[in-house]
Amino acid sequence: MSQLALALADRNAGGEATLAAATAAHRTARELYERHLAELIREHVEFTADTIRERAGNPPDAQPNLLPWLLSQAAQAERIQAVGEYRSPRRTRHGSRNRRWIATDAL
Question: Which of 43, 66, 68, 89 is the most exposed place for a label (fewest CB within 10 A)?
Fold first, then answer.
């Protein structure tokens, strides 16, 4: 198996573990994030991860890798695509570059 194949397998396993942890009965972040992501896709508006977090009310039980994984899965399924970058104002992101997204069928 190639190094790329091994890396992708590890990435997918990590993503699946994140989703499983976010599905526990006491967690609501996954449901909130998925609902608001679907709304933004239906609205055909440009959005960011911060947009989704704000709409979801910044759920306290959110795993740090959950929203990036959901966005990655939506992009792989060609439901959304990147249309640019921005610097997140969130302190925990330290001004890092993040993607701006839009529904694939909106372009």
Answer: 89
